[in-house]
Amino acid sequence: MRLPRLSLIVPLAALALAAGSAAAPAWAAASGTFTVTGSMSTVRTNDTATLLNNGEVLVAGGAFGGTPTLTSAELYNPATGRFTATGSMDTGRRQSNAVTLQDGDVLVTSGISAGGPFAELYHPATGTWSDAIGGLATCTAVQDCRFYSSETLLANGSVLVAGGMTGLASNPSTTKSAMLYNPATNAWTATGAMNTDRGQQTATLLNNGQVLVAGGISFHTHRATELASAELYTP
After folding, report:
1. Where are the alpha helices (DSSP H) in 10-135?
2. Which CA distances in Å does 6 have to 10, 14, 24?
């Protein structure tokens, strides 16, 4: 019996690449290596990237070159390795926060913007956005609502936004204040203030339901003080 020549045996992965796919899917990558995947349709920095419940990733906002804030958003599909455009935010923003809610929507808050709603909701089912300001004043180019804050999804489904910088865009200061967003009512309410005003901090949900807020900076009159302190928020 004649055996087939080895040169005729072509691995399945090679066939897939030869077919002209833009990027190798995740299963084709060898362990401990990086492989090129599809590129975003827009160059952006200081954007957010949020894992959706369906496995796709929402990339939103950011900045590029002479455009200080972007409204555009796109979706990355791991199965195809491609980015596709989705609905744009109402407000261009960079260095914002984003978290997937329990119902699958994405809450984007804060960030540096030219004015508009403090928070927006992305709805994956329709690829659209809606405002999530719920009683908050609209941000302006002169008066920043809040940026460099932290955003944490709590065990009860609400979202804690703490600290950050507020005030005049020309001379902002860090704040101790914190707010809670209730997805069921699309409304914000004040909650207890931190012991230390801070921005650019980390905020981690602990197994017991508390939130550990650590580090960051305190910023006043154009002077920043780096922080080592930490505190716990109890819902």
Report:
1. 12-18
2. 8, 15, 24
Round to whole Å and give the CA distance between 101 and 159: 8
Q: How many Cβ atoms from other residues are within 10 Å of residue 17's Cβ?
A: 12
Distances (CA, A) of 136 to 7, 17, 61, 64: 67, 50, 21, 28
d(CA 162, CA 109): 11
Give the Cα separation of 13 and 215 in Å (integer): 46
Question: CA of 115: how far to CAs of 51, 52, 72, 89, 91, in Å?
Answer: 26, 27, 16, 12, 7
* Token reading at 161: 């936004």
Q: pLDDT digits over 145-160, tens only?
A: 788 999 999 999 999 9
List, for residues 170-222, the tens digit of each pLDDT value.
788 999 999 999 999 999 999 999 999 999 999 999 999 999 999 999 999 99
Residue 89 burial (CB < 10 Å; 0-12/13-18/19+)? buried
Query: In this structure, is the dihedral angle defined by the CA atoms of residues 56, 119, 150 and 181, taken in order, positive or negative?
Result: negative
Question: Is the distance from CB of 146 to CB of 175 less than 8 angstroms?
Answer: yes
Q: What tokens does 37 get?
A: 């995947």
C-alpha distance from residue 106 to each of 6, 84, 121, 126 (Å): 51, 17, 5, 12
- Strands (DSSP E) along 25-131, which ranges? 48-51, 57-60, 73-77, 82-86, 93-94, 97-100, 106-109, 112-113, 119-123, 128-131
Q: Count the Cβ atoms, other than its own, within 10 Å of residue 134.
A: 17
Q: What backbone phi and psi angles, to 5 degrees, belong to 14?
A: -65, -35
